[in-house]
Amino acid sequence: MKLNFREFFMQKMTILFRPDDVEMTAKDFLSTYASYMREVGIVGKDPSGKTIYPSRTAPVDDKYTQFFEQWVALTNALSIDSSVGMDFYTDGWFARDPKYQSVSQKGTALTHQICPNREEFWQYGAEIVKELGAYPIDEILVFGTGYVREEFCFCDRCRKEFAPMVDQEPKRLVYDYIADNPEYLAKWHVWRTDKVMQGLRYLQDAARDVSEATHRSKPLRIAVEVLIDPESGLSEGGSKKYGYDYAKIGEITGNVLINLFPWSPTLPRRGTKEYNDLVESLYFTTEFKRRGGRASLFRWGVRTLEQFQEIKALGKDAGIDRFVVSFHYPADYSTRRESAIGNY
Ligand SMILES: [Zn+2]
């Protein structure tokens, strides 16, 4: 299906493009559509772990490096707010290395998702932020910011660190042992959330450093993707399962990107209980914004005007007025969904 970009831009949504969406040079595309755009996004590092910009740190898919550089230079010249997508723990290149993999309690290693308990990986992410921040962009949208699910991670490092906190031997640590004791379970949540927040601090510090080094008029923003899905208990369940602390995200980056129903095919209809539950679950953004934070709604695989309008209507009910969409689902979507809500 040929997409009508102009129609989409008229909806005042930020589209996070992949270069292969565009099918022409960045220059031709932006000169055709610039007058309809206030904001636009481009993927910088995707779940393969490769970048489309010429990174010195990460592996590079060099098919689109010229496209990327032309894109960010032109959006800047045309005064269009520019964001770049960056996958963080969802990194298929690093996740081939057993040292970094997230591991289930049964010992199944995931080859698409990094264990968030990795200071070296936070440093790696910080390097990517600095590289991206050297371009004249306004914001980095960080995807894959948390744990795979509640029952992760049981890699050697996580076992070794957490087991003594609950009087267990690292080798014998299993999720049921933790979950059966409310005190242990609370510790599990706090400990994991702390790791996720520490990782975000590294990224935010890098953004601050690069903002100072490049003498920007506005500091580089870091938007943190949070997954909000009924399968994982909307915002409250998600905070425990993935390791989010919305108030802390507010303190650290002040910018949250709510990935709506990533594991569920359709958004609930207005007027249903599911819809009201979702709206209620987004109340945390009110407090978040009161403290000066920015909240945006995001969804994968949006390809029709009706889907755009559905998200806008939800935003109206939830008091959120910034929208970002991607035409695609991530390339590793089915694996990711299976590991998040399946039976790993
Ligand atoms: Zn781990």
Question: Given the structure, what is the number of helices?
Answer: 14
What number of structural domains do the residues give? 1
Architecture in CATH?
A: Alpha-Beta Barrel
N-to-C series of helices and strands: HEHHEHEEEHEHHHEHHEHHEHEH
Instruction: Tell me how many strands there are.
Output: 10
Rg on CA atoms, Å: 20 Å
Secondary-structure-based class equals: alpha/beta
Q: In the CATH hierarchy, what is the superfamily?
A: Glycosidases
Largest sheet, spatial ordering of strands: 1-2-3-6-7-8-9-10
CATH topology: TIM Barrel
Low-confidence stretches: none
Task: Give a written overview of the molecule.
The protein has 14 helices and ten strands. Helix 5 packs parallel to helix 8 and helix 8 (182-213) packs across helix 9 (234-243). The chain is α/β, with parallel strands linked by helices. It has an eight-stranded parallel beta barrel with strand order 1-2-3-6-7-8-9-10, surrounded by seven helices. Helix 4 (65-77) links the parallel strand 2 and strand 3. The protein has helices at 5-10, 19-22, 26-33, 65-77, 119-133, 156-162, 175-179, 182-213, 234-243, 246-252, 273-281, 284-290, 305-318, 333-341, and strands spanning 14-17, 39-45, 81-87, 101-103, 109-114, 139-143, 221-228, 255-260, 294-299, 323-325. The protein has one domain: TIM Barrel, CATH 3.20.20.80. The chain starts with a helix and ends with a helix. It binds zinc ion. Zinc ion (ZN) binds at residues 115, 117, 153, 155, 157-158.
What is the compact description of this entry?
The chain is an alpha/beta fold and 344 residues long. It is 42% helix and 16% strand.
